[in-house]
Design goal:
Layout: H1 12-18, H2 27-44, H3 51-61, E1 64-65, E2 70-71, E3 75-77, E4 83-85, E5 90-91, E6 95-98, E7 103-105, E8 110-111, E9 116-118, E10 120-121, H4 126-130, E11 135-136, E12 139-141, E13 146-147, E14 152-153, E15 158-159, E16 164-165, E17 170-171, E18 180-182, E19 187-188
Helix pairs in contact: 2-3
InterPro entries: Hexapep, Hexapep_transf_CS, Hexapeptide_acetyltransf, Mac_dom, Trimer_LpxA-like_sf
Family: Belongs to the transferase hexapeptide repeat family.
Keywords: Acyltransferase, Repeat, Transferase
Amino acid sequence: MPTDRSDPLTTEKQKMLAGALYRPGDPEIQADQAATKAWMARYNAMMDSASAERRVLLRERFAAVGEGAVIRPPFFCDFGFNIALGRDVFLNFNCVILDVVAVTIGDGTQIGPAVQIYAADHPRDPQARRDGLEFGRPVVIGRNVWIGGAAVILPGVTVGDDAVIGAGSIVTRDVPAGATVAGNPARRLR
């Protein structure tokens, strides 16, 4: 868990983006989330639009959107500006990305419906939780990964290139390149 930075010149948003403890009720963070909710309403209303039209809207909000990237609505995220999609990335219906810090998805990765990717985390210390503090840990998903429907990727996880995550799996730790994992918690299959 990160340490609390008490630098009075550091904003709560800067703390959030750095993965440090921050207060999610901060007005700047709340304004960003409100803007993202408005953006999601526009994006999710485009279900019958072509992928290329939706990609234009993704580029308004995301850190990066590679050519051919597709997210089928409905889609949900915290901010959007911390999400980077490589070329030809595909996310099926009902995916959720909690992107308080960077979430990177590599070229050619395919993500099934209802997959949840969590970069948002909470302190293990009960007092820090009572104080309303949160933090984030980046999630990195490599190239050409297949993530089956309803899988959950937890904060701080890195999934290597060419890996496969079984449907419904809960991924609690890093997945090596080329590995296939499944279950709760996800374990490597031989």
